[in-house]
């Protein structure tokens, strides 16, 4: 691992539970010497990626906010999807979520809110979510290549079982094939107890990028639910059509991990 990569590992220490870090966290969690930990943090502070919030404490810095704005403005996936998602929310009444996959995590990068949206949705923008629960994530899992599924089983079998999924390749493949055959993944209460969702994969050519989903409260009017699977699938295909008109990167974010 390069020095730059090791420095950037410090940013990965920030979580929803760990909002601030100290040099001692870097030493303990990354198994570095005190001198190395302080050097890493000094480099990140100089770049504006972290800043002091108290004596010996650091939070994420203003450069992170600048980078987030650049993502929202320049991400070709968001550009291709934004107005389609707005229309999807208006028609279905649900919250439309656009998510990318990253290793064994799924991250919402854009969302639009509809009239039957839940009061709270765990898939909020920028929050990393597990790959094994909820329509938004499971539709991505269903379209991963066999080699990646084998790697997941090898390294994350306990998490699969906890999510109610098989931890053997044959059984998992069969369960995911059923989702692929249906084209849409529908779940209810797997992530948020009072929320149901429908999701379709998003590809650029043969490259899996993530998913498009609609989530809404379980008590939304029944008459509003019937067209949702078809509308989600059609919207996803429209986004893919726009992406095909854009220059392609050699790898997606997910595939580069």
Q: How do you describe this structure in short?
A:
It is built from nine helices and eight strands. By secondary structure, it is of the alpha+beta class. A six-stranded antiparallel beta sheet has the order 5-4-3-8-7-6, with helices on both faces. Strands 1-2 form a two-stranded antiparallel sheet.
Q: Which short descriptors sum up this protein?
A:
Beta-Lactamase, Arc Repressor Mutant, subunit A, alpha+beta, 2 domains, disordered C terminus, two-stranded antiparallel ribbon, six-stranded antiparallel sheet, 257 residues
Indicate the topology.
Elements: H1 3-9, H2 23-30, H3 34-46, E1 50-54, E2 57-60, H4 62-74, H5 76-92, E3 95-102, E4 105-112, E5 128-130, H6 135-142, H7 146-162, H8 169-182, E6 185-188, E7 195-204, E8 207-217, H9 228-244
Antiparallel strand pairs: 1-2, 3-4, 3-8, 4-5, 6-7, 7-8
Helix pairs in contact: 2-3, 5-9, 6-8
How would you sum up this structure, described in words?
This protein has 257 residues and is α+β, with helices and mostly antiparallel strands. The chain has two domains: 3-65, Winged helix-like DNA-binding domain superfamily/Winged helix DNA-binding domain (Arc Repressor Mutant, subunit A, Orthogonal Bundle), CATH 1.10.10; 75-244, 2-Layer Sandwich (Beta-Lactamase). It is globular and about 60 Å long. It has helices at 3-9, 23-30, 34-46, 62-74, 76-92, 135-142, 146-162, 169-182, 228-244, and strands spanning 50-54, 57-60, 95-102, 105-112, 128-130, 185-188, 195-204, 207-217. Strand 3 (95-102) and strand 4 (105-112) form a beta hairpin. The chain contains nine helices and eight strands. The strands form two sheets. The protein has a six-stranded antiparallel beta sheet, with helices on both faces.
